[in-house]
Amino acid sequence: MSSFVPRIFSGIQPSGDLHLGNYLGAIRRFVPLQQSHDCIYCVVDMHAITVWQDPADLHRSTLELTAAYLAAGLDPKRSIIFNQSQVIEHAELAWIFNCVARMGWLNRMTQWKDKAGKNSEVQSVGLFSYPSLMAADILLYKATGVPVGEDQKQHLELTRDIAAKFNNDFGPRLKELGLDADYFPMTEPLISGPATRIMSLRDGTKKMSKSDPSDMSRIALTDDAETITRKIKKAKTDAEPLPSEVAGLKGRPEAENLVDIYAALADMSKDQVLREFGGVGFGTFKPALADLAVAQLAPIADDMRRYLADKGEIERVLRDGAGRARIIAAETMREVRKIVGFVGA
Ligand code: AMP
Ligand code: TRP
């Protein structure tokens, strides 16, 4: 029997502009969880610096991402919203997890392999140990569920491996201290529904990403109506009309991606979208998708601008959230230091 309070944690890096993949795969799914769970939503600025960030850009992106959280409907009274670097316990637990995780585990991470490629020698040590910090983010709060996009699944498996090895390595010590043998929980990834993996508008086999050099490959959360419409109209597709059943999307990644985006934005299943648009060509479907995207995203962009007009208020939200996060984090670290055997703890 698990004795863990159901708790949600998730984070996004303040690096580059937020895009539709971040919104549909993550932020939008954070909102309803606030009704049913204690939620902690973090702006992971320490993860962002695993690759070079211009300090002024990092500062601006941190405020922008917080504004996006608020504009999308995260409520700072109900949930804890903060930036990672304000709660130093994240770095402390990450160090301990660096000593729990094995080189082989981190070496297998596809995100590391993708980002480092053949140039691993010149990458920061932080980029390699990134998943230990992510495990620390989650386990500091003993979070039981983490809503993320599909690309983060492997990092969550690693988080469970770290939790299991910690619980196991320190098993006798946990007993001696009268602590639960399952000290850290086996956190569940919350990856479901359409849009857990939004693809590039230029190439249906690559995910939509902040780091894609082509601006036309992604819809930014701050794009205006005209830009959104232009990007959708120019999105790569094939010449066939849409099928009337999901099976007909097989081998048509670009078509499938646009249907996926429509389904997510309209809160429909792909079946329902195809029931409505089966047999219709992209000349009709794309404008319908563009209208829907503009109707959903424009109010968020407007709200973001409104929040960003008062930077002091955004900073206050982050400071308040950090204060509340620190209470939970400090309690965990008091125990963890004792478990590890540090003097003074
Ligand atoms: P990142 O931009 O890498 O910090 O990602 C922030 C969140 O957005 C994570 O939960 C990712 O899984 C999610 N995400 C990023 N790109 C996509 C995408 N193309 N489709 C769906 N979710 C995504
Ligand atoms: N690695 C995640 C990403 O790139 C961001 C992240 C950092 C995160 N810490 C987290 C996501 C904790 C969920 C929980 O998207």
Protein architecture, described:
The chain has helices spanning 20-36, 45-48, 55-72, 89-98, 103-107, 110-116, 125-140, 153-169, 171-176, 225-234, 253-266, 270-277, 282-308, 311-340; strands at residues 7-12, 38-43, 80-83, 145-147, 188-190. With 345 residues, it is mostly helical. It folds into two domains: 7-196 and 311-340, HUPs (Rossmann fold), CATH 3.40.50; 215-306, Tyrosyl-Transfer RNA Synthetase (Orthogonal Bundle). The strands form two sheets. Strands 1-2-3 form a three-stranded parallel sheet. Helix 1 (20-36) links the parallel strand 1 and strand 2 (38-43). The structure holds adenosine monophosphate and tryptophan.
Number of domains: 2
**Structure summary, number of beta strands:** 5
Q: Spell the H/E element sequence.
A: EHEHHEHHHHEHHEHHHHH
Tell me which CATH architecture of the largest domain applies here: 3-Layer(aba) Sandwich
The Rg value, from CA coordinates, equals 21 Å
- Portion of residues in beta strands equals 5-15%
**Helical segment tally?**
14
